[in-house]
Design brief:
This protein has ten helices and four strands, in the order H-H-E-H-H-E-H-H-H-H-E-H-E-H. With 234 residues, it is α+β, with helices and mostly antiparallel strands. The chain has a domain at 25-105 and 153-216: NADH Oxidase (3-Layer(aba) Sandwich), CATH 3.40.109. A four-stranded antiparallel sheet has the order 1-2-4-3, sandwiched between helices. The protein is globular. The model has no long low-confidence stretch (mean pLDDT 97). Bound molecules: flavin mononucleotide (FMN). Flavin mononucleotide (FMN) binds at residues 22-23, 25, 77-78, 178-182, 207, 222.
């Protein structure tokens, strides 16, 4: 047996994981992702990069079946209604909802960016004005993030980086996932406020993600555009 792992081995493992991953429509309800593996998945999310390092998202892990049922009526992308199954909501071992932070914290006028830079990023005091100026310029001049919607969309983009990472590390451990945008955001927000105590002024649902073990083979074959249709070299 080889005692060293070569770059080729790692490349093969990566491609294997990407070929393995598909958007699982229904999971084996009897199989559970172990605490340790789910811990690794959460680490991958937490250690993901974000613009300006501001980590403008939260993750809710919804394990209570009754709470999951509250989401079903308007979460058509995970209810199974599209494919005649119990769907991801009823069968997933773990079910996550990424929330975007809103302008209440992510506006450059709020205290959060500077506070986060000082307390979490541990920037020295003399860097804080420069950091804040760069963030303000980014929002107002460079990316022109003006409306509340633009702010939560930017925050959601950061959540999607974590989303991609959790799906990949899950696949590397042989765990299936499904990203889910098939839900009514306003109704989700209302349920999160009423039943989960999530303040809609602070958080907006961005995307959901289900974890588990596939109940059967993928419903659809994996197809993609060719590399030369996607990538242009200059
Ligand atoms: C952001 C995002 C949202 C998605 N939302 C849903 C969804 O609500 N329900 C679902 O079954 N699949 C959903 N999908 C899965 C896509 O349809 C799927 O990834 C795509 O068709 C490619 O297939 P594959 O992931 O199996 O390779 C979503 C994918 C992404 C990336």
């Amino acid at each position: 047996m080889k005692d060293t792992v070569t770059s080729t081995d790692v490349q093969n493992q990566i491609i294997e994981a990407f070929e393995f991953r598909h958007a699982a429509k229904v999971f084996d309800p009897e199989r559970r992702v172990s605490e340790s593996e789910f811990g690794t998945i959460l680490d991958a999310a937490r250690l993901s990069p974000s613009s300006f390092g501001l980590e403008p998202w939260q993750l809710l892990v919804v394990q209570d079946p009754d709470k999951r049922e509250l989401l079903r009526p308007f979460t058509w992308g995970a209810s199974g209604e599209m494919n005649g199954t119990e769907g991801q909501l009823r069968t997933a071992s773990h079910f996550g909802i990424f929330l975007s932070h809103t302008g209440a914290t992510m506006s450059h006028e709020s205290d959060y960016p500077r506070q986060h830079a000082a307390e979490v990023k541990k920037f020295p005091a003399e860097f804080l004005d420069g950091f804040h100026a760069a963030y303000s310029k980014f929002r107002t001049d460079d990316f022109k993030i003006e409306s509340e919607r633009e702010t939560t969309d930017w925050a959601a983009r950061q959540a999607y980086i974590a989303l991609g990472n959790v799906m990949t590390v899950a696949a590397m451990m042989g765990i299936d996932t499904c990203p889910i945008e098939g839900f009514d955001a306003d109704q989700t927000s209302a349920v999160l406020e009423e039943h989960f105590g999530i303040d809609p002024k602070l958080y907006r649902p961005a995307v959901m993600v289900a974890f588990g073990y596939r109940a059967g083979p993928p419903m659809f074959p994996k197809t993609r555009r060719g590399m030369d249709e996607i990538v242009s070299w200059f």
